Amino acid sequence: MTVPVRQRRAGLRRRFALALAAAALLPAAEVAAQQKPGEQAQQYCSSIANAAADARFAWQKETLTALSKDIEVRIGQLEAKRAEYEEWLKRRQMFLAKADESVTAIYAKMKPEAASQQLTAMDSEAAAAILTRLDPRAASAIMNEMEPGRAARLANVITNTPKKAAPPRPEPAPSTPPESGSDAGSPQPQNSEKSG
Length: 196
Prior knowledge:
- Helix content is 74%, strand content 0%.
- By secondary structure, it is mostly helical.
- The longest helix has 73 residues, at 37-109.
């Protein structure tokens, strides 16, 4: 808990008053009679400077200690919340994986006619996701039973969705340019250096 500002100021004032009282009780009467008023004020300030600095440092230390404890409590709360969210996310991902597996298993065991009717009524992305998880033979049997337009749209969704990175296809070897005598009717490409 942090101390209210008024209580801190009151405590600081008390310490400062005690320091002033201690300085006033010093046997300075003899010295005061011999010194000028400006020198007395300077001596008074220098004699209480250490006590005032000590009081200020003690107050700062108390304040920093209270803030440090408050920060530690908040960090503990945040760590507990983070652990709770991670556990929830883990359970959610496990549930989704099981649901995906069970839905895929259901459609894999259905007759192609019935599965095609249900997938036709579904959202295109959801139907395509189910088809991609099925065995290719079962997916093709289901798509064979669908209306050709719907099957084409699903195939389009499947081919446009990014999958695992496919290995790059090798570039075809460049074909040799045709000889000048073989294509007399086709236009010849112009060299940019000669055409300008």
